[in-house]
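Researcher: Quick test of sequence recovery. Tokens follow.
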């Protein structure tokens, strides 16, 4: 049986390319070349992917410029939201990234917001309302489409959009341009059920659920008169005046197995959709026959707080949808028609931590020969919707942007013309030492540090520079866990966010990588009021917290869980495994049986770092504590604009008119060097090609630089052989005349080195002084 290569492999290639750039493990350069004309300048020849084709392209390279990691962007195909279009929906059982039939399940709007389509009313429903919300949870538009906000293309990246591709990236905690996207990432739900797809109700054989009670308006909807708990037993009582709003079968036990759902609460809206399964029903036996239902929790902690005076909490009785799987928290209600047949399903909460799930109706049918409807569960991607736009949209393309301008005139001449550009990997300096170009050139990162110390003098930038971050590579930031070290180039800013002081420091890039907040998004410090409370928990045990309905804006009770990683003083460090802890509820240890209410919950962020001062050969400390900074974020590596390495691919002949000694065939001339001694595109040669004893070399003139009547510089491309200076050999040949080569400068890059990965043949582009160019290359993997 043939093996199958997943589409995600292509994404890993794209991510690997950027990782190599950021970690400086391999060197990638833009090159431009091909000064000689095509046979038809308006129709460039096709590149032939052969060994000889690569050799030829390498000989024709005019100049190289290293690719700046900061100018490499991930990209996805552009599907612009258009009124009246039918969009596909996300489906975990569909090959949505199939090359031959890709599904259009996401869109970008004219506001540069990216949304994923999770549901729609029918297969043919057209989208007629543009999604605009940036909420971190799914939302429905009036046309019935359900969307999930994923990201917004950063304004700084919009100039690099293509007509058919858009740049995207993962959002960092410190990125002010991606606040909404970061919220979507941080609040994504791992393993949620995206929707329950109603497959069929079996047509004429569809079951009827005759004891369902779904009145059409609040006026006809029964109300909760009272709610009581007796131990673990829960009872809902009707108001005495609402008995007539239920049909009440002669045997109230016919309601068993149905769910009582709070459909509307004018008292506490957060309790809407609370539900419990009816396990008993009856009446008080009083004259007015006050009816009641006993409920059992099923997937949530049922509770309701009715107002006895106004009785303003309404309920429905519906068949029970049972969701089973390896996660928790998901629940749904069926949609019934006037005949009490199920025609659909409403997923109220998708829960979390599911990688498998099924949904069934457990309420009794009206007849044995009737059939329950069937459903299909559709699960979110790993990490949840919005957790990682790169993975969810399976990024397979990158956009590489390389500017060429005034900073590069010494190596990429603002003269001549070119007809090819591309990308070459690991070219070598032409020094015979196999030195890979660009590997030793410094580039930078901006590291964001959280200050946890108490030295108020450091909060003022100039004081901080004098006391700690002196710059000029005199300070070294050392990771306490990774041992990564990098020198400080500059203290860029100090800011306060939510009471926390953050230092943004420019550092030289290193091969290693500090641990940042993004590495520990689920790690938190829980602070208690006493050390005894914190020490009562056991390292390694699971802790949990029950968060009642309505506490954080949800209409259902949720359970937060985590594992204790360490404890120190009044704090424990926890890695959350389900939902998130809050300060208002007790934290319970499963093994220790400890229960305490936290006073503060804060992110751990990244690893602690120490600051080493090379002037004093000492580590900065406060009261003996050397770890008063934690890493929040580590920015993308970048070069300063005038420091991005570039190299020439041209051979330079220094042309003179005379020599002190007669060496070689010709070493003197009576003709003066002129501005027109050589013309671009002409062939020059040294030696005699047909002479077995004569060294021979030839090349094509890229540019002739006249200096004075006795001296000039000749820039050559497509060099064949090896030119010699006058001490080795003179020049001859009709097109060269008898000028002397007083010096030869070989190309700065060895043309035999490197591997060409991408090449594009184009119509000729002339270069002139002052010309600014920006190359945009989209690489698809």
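Model:
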């Amino acid at each position: 049986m043939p093996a199958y290569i997943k589409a995600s492999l292509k994404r890993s290639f794209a991510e690997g390319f950027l990782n190599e750039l950021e970690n400086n493990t391999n060197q990638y350069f833009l090159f431009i070349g091909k000064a000689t004309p095509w046979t038809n300048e308006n129709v460039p020849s096709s590149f032939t992917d052969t060994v000889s084709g690569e050799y030829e392209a390498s000989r024709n390279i005019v100049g190289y410029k290293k690719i700046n990691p900061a100018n490499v962007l991930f990209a996805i195909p552009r599907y612009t939201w258009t009124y009246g279009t039918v969009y596909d929906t996300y489906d975990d059982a569909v090959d949505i990234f199939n090359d031959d039939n890709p599904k259009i399940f996401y869109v970008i709007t004219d506001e540069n917001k990216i949304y994923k389509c999770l549901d729609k009313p029918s297969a043919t429903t057209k989208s007629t309302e543009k999604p605009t919300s940036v909420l971190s949870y799914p939302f429905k538009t009036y046309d019935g489409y359900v969307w999930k906000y994923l990201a917004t293309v950063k304004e700084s990246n919009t100039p690099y959009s293509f007509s058919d591709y858009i740049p995207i990236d993962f959002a960092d905690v410190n990125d002010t341009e991606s606040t909404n996207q970061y919220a979507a990432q941080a609040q994504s739900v791992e393993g949620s059920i995206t929707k329950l797809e109603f497959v069929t109700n079996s047509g004429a054989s569809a079951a009827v659920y005759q004891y369902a009670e779904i009145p059409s308006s609040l006026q006809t909807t029964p109300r909760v008169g009272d709610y009581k708990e007796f131990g673990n037993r829960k009872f809902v009582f009707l108001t005495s005046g609402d008995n007539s709003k239920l049909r009440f079968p002669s045997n109230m036990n016919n309601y068993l197995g149905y769910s009582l759902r709070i459909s509307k609460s004018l008292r506490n809206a957060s309790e809407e959709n609370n539900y419990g399964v009816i396990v008993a029903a009856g009446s008080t036996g009083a004259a007015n026959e006050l009816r009641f239902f006993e409920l059992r929790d099923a997937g949530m902690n049922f509770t309701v707080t009715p107002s006895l005076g106004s009785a303003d909490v309404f309920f429905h009785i519906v068949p029970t949808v049972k969701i089973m799987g390896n996660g928790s928290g998901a629940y749904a209600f069926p949609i019934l028609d006037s005949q009490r047949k199920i025609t659909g399903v409403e997923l109220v909460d998708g829960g979390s931590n599911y990688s498998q799930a099924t949904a069934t109706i457990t309420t009794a049918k009206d007849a044995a020969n009737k059939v329950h409807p069937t459903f299909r569960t559709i699960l979110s991607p790993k990490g949840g919707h919005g957790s990682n736009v790169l993975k969810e949209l399976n990024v397979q393309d990158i956009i590489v942007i390389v500017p060429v301008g005034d900073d590069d005139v010494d190596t990429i001449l603002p003269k001549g013309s070119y007809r090819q550009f591309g990308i070459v990997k690991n070219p070598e300096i032409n020094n015979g030492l196999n030195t890979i170009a660009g590997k030793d050139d410094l580039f930078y990162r901006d590291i964001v540090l959280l200050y946890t110390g108490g030295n108020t003098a450091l909060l003022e930038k100039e004081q901080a520079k004098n006391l700690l971050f002196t710059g000029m590579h005199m300070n070294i930031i050392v990771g306490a866990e990774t041992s990564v070290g990098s020198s400080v180039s500059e203290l860029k800013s100090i800011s306060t966010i939510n009471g926390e002081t953050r230092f943004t420091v420019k550092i030289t890039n290193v091969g290693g990588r500090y641990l940042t907040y993004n590495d520990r998004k689920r790690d938190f410090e829980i602070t208690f009021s006493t050390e005894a409370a914190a020490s009562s928990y056991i390292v390694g045990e699971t802790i949990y917290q029950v968060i009642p309905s309505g506490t954080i804006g949800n209409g259902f009770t949720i359970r937060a869980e985590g594992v204790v990683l360490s404890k120190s003083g009044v704090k424990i460090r926890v890695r959350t495994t389900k939902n998130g802890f809050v300060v208002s509820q007790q934290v319970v240890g499963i093994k220790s049986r400890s229960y305490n209410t936290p006073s503060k919950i804060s992110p751990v962020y990244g690893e602690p770092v120490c600051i080493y001062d090379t002037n004093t050969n000492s580590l900065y400390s406060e009261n003996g504590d050397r770890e008063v900074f934690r890493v929040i974020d580590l920015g993308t590596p970048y070069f300063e604009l005038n420091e991005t390495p570039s190299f020439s691919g041209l051979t330079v002949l220094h042309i003179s008119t005379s020599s002190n000694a007669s060496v070689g065939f010709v070493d003197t001339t009576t003709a003066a060097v002129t501005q027109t001694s050589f013309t671009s595109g002409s062939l020059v040669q040294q030696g005699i090609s047909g002479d077995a004893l004569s060294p021979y070399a030839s090349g094509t003139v890229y540019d002739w630089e006249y200096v004075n009547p006795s001296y000039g510089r000749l820039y050559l491309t497509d060099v064949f052989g090896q030119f010699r200076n006058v001490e080795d050999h003179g020049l001859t040949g009709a097109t060269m005349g008898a000028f002397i080569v007083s010096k030869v400068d070989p190309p700065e890059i060895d043309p035999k080195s490197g591997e060409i990965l991408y090449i594009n043949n184009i119509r000729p582009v002339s270069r002139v002084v002052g010309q600014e160019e920006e190359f945009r290359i989209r690489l698809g993997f």
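The two ends are 25 Å apart (CA to CA).
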